[in-house]
Each structure stands twice: as structure tokens, then as C-alpha cells.
């Protein structure tokens, strides 16, 4: 669980570090949580990336709703941005990702060759909000390729380029940026996916939000997991939370029940979930299949 506290000074420093590193890379790989493709973005990253080739990786795809993932992929793709999906924990998925990356970067390499430049590795960096899976990604991506290229001039002290193969080098330190947590709904979705620590306030608030959300989009998840009848999966949700609290054996400790439910949701035990609904960001229409 991420414990980063974002203060204005800290945010300015993080932004500056990312901007410095961006100057040294050819392609930016931004990790987002596939369950919250909008809420897990940094509000100003697109601006600071400027015209760099940008790959959005919807990570933790194993925990998200596949129909929504498909639609989000289309929604986020544009001339400068390509979208890929990944389960960073799965070696096979990483292999496929590497193939897609090689295809995506082939035109960049070709452009260099056409200009008469000699072959060099494409430099990559990972960026993302806390807990989105940056370390897991880097570990899996660089598996058995731990040989660092060594400190090179211009790289922040302590950072190294890791040579993946003759075509790619990756900055070993990811860029960490903040999400748009001042928006209450975004903050709740971040808490429900484990991107920010749920405070005391968030626990029951987030649990009630989750019940309302699940009742609307995935009405069988709660009845299946906690053995209540489908008819009980209805508002008022504070009452439902009390029923669940008793079912879980917590008597009247609804905070404990909230915590359990949030953990089960975060771990994917309830089923695959997408909290950011593409139709809400897309003039109300679900995109074509
Ligand atoms: N199910 C699933 N879990 C993942 C995936 N990628 C990462 N995780 C889990 O997500 C949690 C956070 O992963 P990290 O790699 O530590 O995330 P990070 O972005 O480096 O986190 P910070 O250091 O807080 O910035 C861990 O429990 C990982 O096991 C994925 O694709 N699927």
C-alpha cells in the first residue's frame, strides 16, 4: 500500500524530476490501473510529455472488466498515444507486451536509419501514480537482464539504464506522479483500488460507495461472495452494510466489514471490476465493439 503524502513542495519536486528524465528518453510508458483508466492518470502528464511517443499501459488487466478494457483502449488511443494492456505479474503477458512494443517502436527506428543515424537502443521510462505496478513492471520487464548499462552522464545520481537487448534500454527508476485526489469521486475510486490509503473516513464511505456501484453494475458479486440473497442487494445501503457485517461475523462492527469488503474488492475476489465507466467519458455512449 502506498504511503506517499503529496504536499505542494513534494509535487513540484516530483514533476521536476520527471521532466528532467523525460529529456533523456525516446518513449514514455505510462502505467494506469485498468480498473480506473481515468482516475489513475496524473492530471498534467500529457502536457509535460509534450510530443514524445506515449504508450499508456492499462495494467492489472486481470482485475478489470474485459468489455470496458476494450472500449477504454479505443477511447484513449490517438495520434500520439497508443494503448496496451498488461498483467505485469504474468511472464507470458510481458512477452506479448514486448512484441507489441517492438512493433510500435519499429517506425521510430526506421526514421533514425533514414536520417543516416547509426543503430542505438530506444530509451524508455516508466511513469505512474503510486501502487499502479511500476516496480512489478520493471522487475518483470528486466528479468534476467539485470546488467545495468552503468551511470551515464546526465542521468540523475543513482539512476541507471538497464539494457534489455540491443534495441531497448530502460531507466531503472520510475517516475512517480500524483493522481487527481482532490476530486472526491476519484479519491474514492483510488481508495477502492488500493492506490491511496483509505483513511478512517474513507472506509465506510468507500464501502457504501462500492455497494451502490456494485448494485448498479455487478449486482451478483456481493450476493455470491457473502451468501446473501440477490433480493437483499438493494438500497438503503447502510442497512445492507449492517446485514453484511453480521454475515461476516463482525456483529455490529461495520468498519471491520467495510475493510474486509474493500480488501476483497481490491484483491479481485468479488470479480473483475471497472470503476471508471468509459461511457461516462464518452458522450454517454459505449463505444462500438
Ligand atoms: N493483479 C495484479 N496485481 C498487480 C499487477 N501489477 C502489480 N500488481 C500488484 O500491485 C501492487 C503494487 O505494485 P508495485 O509494483 O509495488 O507498484 P508501484 O507502482 O511500484 O508502487 P509505488 O512504489 O507505491 O509507487 C503489488 O501488490 C503488486 O503485486 C497486475 O498486473 N495484476
UniProtKB/TrEMBL annotation:
PANTHER family: MITOCHONDRIAL RIBOSOME-ASSOCIATED GTPASE 1. Keywords: Cytoplasm, GTP-binding, Nucleotide-binding. It comes from the Bacteria. One of its GO terms (cellular component) is cytoplasm. CDD domains: YlqF. Residues 12-179 form the CP-type G domain. It is found in: Cytoplasm. Required for a late step of 50S ribosomal subunit assembly. Has GTPase activity. The keyword Transferase does not apply. Belongs to the TRAFAC class YlqF/YawG GTPase family. MTG1 subfamily. One of its GO terms (molecular function) is GTP binding. PROSITE patterns: G_CP. Pfam families: MMR_HSR1. Its main location: cytoplasm. GTP binds at residues 59-62, 87-88, 131-136, 175. GO terms for biological process: translation. This is Ribosome biogenesis GTPase A. The keyword Cytoplasm applies.
Amino acid at each position: 500500500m502506498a504511503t506517499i503524502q503529496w504536499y505542494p513542495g513534494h509535487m513540484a519536486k516530483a514533476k521536476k524530476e520527471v521532466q528532467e528524465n523525460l529529456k533523456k528518453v525516446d518513449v514514455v510508458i505510462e502505467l494506469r490501473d485498468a480498473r480506473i483508466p481515468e482516475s489513475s492518470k496524473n492530471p498534467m502528464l500529457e502536457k509535460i510529455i509534450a510530443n514524445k511517443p506515449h504508450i499508456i499501459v492499462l495494467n492489472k488487466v486481470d482485475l478489470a472488466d474485459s468489455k470496458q478494457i476494450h472500449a477504454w483502449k479505443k477511447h484513449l488511443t490517438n495520434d500520439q498515444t497508443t494503448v496496451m494492456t498488461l498483467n505485469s505479474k504474468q511472464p507470458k503477458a510481458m512477452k506479448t507486451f514486448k512484441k507489441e512494443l517492438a512493433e510500435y517502436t519499429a517506425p521510430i527506428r526506421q526514421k533514425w536509419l533514414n536520417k543516416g543515424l547509426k543503430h542505438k537502443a530506444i530509451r524508455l521510462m516508466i511513469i505512474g501514480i503510486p501502487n499502479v505496478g511500476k516496480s512489478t513492471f520493471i522487475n518483470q520487464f528486466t528479468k534476467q537482464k539485470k546488467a545495468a548499462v552503468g551511470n551515464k552522464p546526465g542521468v540523475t545520481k543513482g539512476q541507471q539504464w538497464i539494457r534489455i537487448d540491443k534495441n531497448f534500454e530502460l531507466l531503472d527508476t520510475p517516475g512517480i506522479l500524483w493522481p487527481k485526489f482532490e476530486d472526491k469521486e476519484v479519491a474514492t475510486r483510488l481508495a477502492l483500488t488500493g492506490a491511496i490509503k483509505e483513511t478512517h473516513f474513507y472506509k465506510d464511505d468507500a464501502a457504501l460507495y462500492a455497494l451502490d456501484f456494485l448494485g448498479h453494475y455487478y449486482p451478483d458479486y456481493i450476493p455470491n461472495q457473502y451468501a446473501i440473497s440477490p433480493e437483499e442487494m438493494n438500497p438503503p445501503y447502510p442497512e445492507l452494510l449492517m446485514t453484511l457485517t453480521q454475515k461476516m461475523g463482525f456483529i455490529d462492527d461495520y468498519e471491520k466489514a467495510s475493510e474486509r469488503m474493500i480488501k476483497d474488492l481490491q484483491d479481485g475476489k468479488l470479480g473483475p471490476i471497472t470503476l471508471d465507466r468509459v461511457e461516462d467519458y464518452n458522450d454517454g455512449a459505449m463505444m462500438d465493439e
